[in-house]
Amino acid sequence: MKIRAAVLEEFGRPLEVQEVDLAEPKAGEVLVRLVACGVCHTDLYTASGADPSGYSPTVLGHEGAGVVERIGEGVGSLAPGDHVVTLFSPQCRECAHCLDARTNLCLAIREQQSQGYLPDGTTRLSRDDEPIRHFMGTSTFAEYTVMPEIALAKIAPEAALDRACVFACGLSTGIGAALNTAKVEPGSTCVVFGAGLVGLGAVVGCRLGGAGRIVCVDPAETRLELARGQGATDTLTGGPEAVEQIVELTGGFGADYTFEATGLVGVMRQAVESARMGWGLATVCGVAGKGETLDVVPRLLITGRRVAGSSFGGVKGRDQVPQFVDRYLAGDIDVDPLISHTLSLDEVNRGFDLMHAQDGIRSVISFDA
Ligand SMILES: NC(=O)c1ccc[n+]([C@@H]2O[C@H](COP(=O)([O-])OP(=O)(O)OC[C@H]3O[C@@H](n4cnc5c(N)ncnc54)[C@H](O)[C@@H]3O)[C@@H](O)[C@H]2O)c1
Ligand SMILES: [Zn+2]
Ligand SMILES: [Zn+2]
How far is it, in rounded angstroms, from Cα 27 to Cα 321? Predict the structure, then answer.
């Protein structure tokens, strides 16, 4: 079928919205009609050429939500009409990692996915019979996409898809970092560095975990305001004194749980340094620049601080994304303030501009717009 999609032709150039071909889903695959898709830093990072593993041409986009249109042979968990959120982090439910509660890093399709292919090593996207590679196994800056069944989370049909799409990446990453990776305990003191979608998600996760105190750190006052709306009890504007301020705020010891959601290694270090001696756990969510390293004084670890990393918040997507969406429907998670702009597919590059300008938390492409 012919679809319209935003194609990355050349790094550092605007995406080009154009008509491309999309083949029917093969065995184990699903054709999804996209209804909404968030515009995320990872899309911009790849489009800019900064990601050394990037490739082109490809159709970007990975924060999609839509409706199942058709299913390929052997697909048993989804049917036409089902509402789904796309997962760049799949869940096959069979590999050693899927069967282990300690990780969400499914091993099933990693290699093919990272090279831009569907699990059988081919693409469904093409143009003039030349293949166009998929991006993150999702390619959701498009009217339709074909994805593996194991990379789609079936969600409640009542959930608005232009809200549900933020659970495809940043929001679930933050919530999961608090609930899955750190396992925040009721009454505890938490600090979240960064109040973008990931950091605000961590604030939400700390609140859902019953934290007694949630300190959010971000230089942007507008974002701190949003953090208060999501449950932050204290806010700080960050900078070199942040650790000292946090230690002071926490009776001289530091926090039970700290979260880094900035991608800055200096802030990751602050997250470790502001964790409490004895048991403080620093959870790193941000993606650092190529070659950057985290500098930590070992004494901080010997005296009981721990460091953890979290990919997609440790969320096993097919199981847990639908649960998060249910909590949104139940009124436990306030998604509306996180969505600042609604764009059409043709305006996708404006989504990147808004992100550069730190204008709002998320721009969402609406395919009905
Ligand atoms: N681990 C994962 O699976 C995963 C998933 C999605 C995104 N990420 C990464 O998480 C990070 C955050 O993503 P986002 O979408 O929320 O980004 P964002 O750019 O919207 O938010 C980052 C925030 O950090 C703030 N900040 C800058 N300097 C700071 C400082 N010194 N102290 C405190 N805050 C500071 C900025 O003002 C901004 O609000 C990025 O590195 C992104 O690549 C990771
Ligand atoms: Zn994302
Ligand atoms: Zn798996």
Answer: 24
Q: Ligand 1: does its nearest atom lie under 6 Å from the Cβ of 169?
A: yes
Closest C-alpha to ligand 1, atom 16: 196
Q: Which helix (H) or strand (E) holds 112?
A: helix 110-114
Task: Identify whether the C-beta of residue 63 lies closer than 8 Å to the C-beta of residue 166.
Answer: yes
Pocket test for ligand 1, best of 45, 218, 235, 354 (most atoms within 8 A of CB): 218
Is the shortest distance between the CB of 25 and ligand 1 below 6 Å?
Answer: no
First to last CA, the chain: 21
Residues 173-188 have a mean pLDDT of: 98
Largest CA distance in the chain: 66
Q: Would the CB of 213 count as within 6 Å of ligand 1? A: no
The reply to whether 134 belongs to the active site is no
Amino acid at 174: G
Q: Which residues of 64-99 are buried (b: 16+ CB within 10 A; e: fewer)?
A: bbbbbbbbbeebeebeeebbbbbbbbbbbeebebbe
- The response to whether residue 85 sits with its C-beta less than 6 Å from ligand 1 reads no
pLDDT digits (tens, 9 = 90+) for 50-95: 888 999 999 999 999 999 999 999 999 999 999 999 999 999 999 9
94-145 pLDDT tens trace: 999 999 999 999 999 999 999 999 999 999 999 999 999 999 999 999 999 9
Residue 92 appears among annotated catalytic residues: yes
Query: What tens digit of pLDDT does each residue of 5-62 get?
Result: 999 999 999 999 999 999 999 999 999 999 999 999 999 999 999 888 999 999 999 9
Residue 285 · residue 198 · CB < 8 Å: yes
Mutation choice for ligand 1 from 171, 200, 215, 262, CB with most ligand atoms inside 8 A: 262
Atom of ligand 1 minimally distant from the CA of 238: 32
Element (H, E) at 229: helix 221-229
| Region of residue 21 (phi > 0: left; psi between -120 and 50: alpha; otherwise: beta) | beta
Q: At what angle do helices 265-273 and 242-249 cross, to 10 degrees?
A: 30
Q: Whole-angstrom Cα distance, residue 151 to residue 288?
A: 25
> Is residue 169 annotated as a catalytic residue, yes or no?
yes
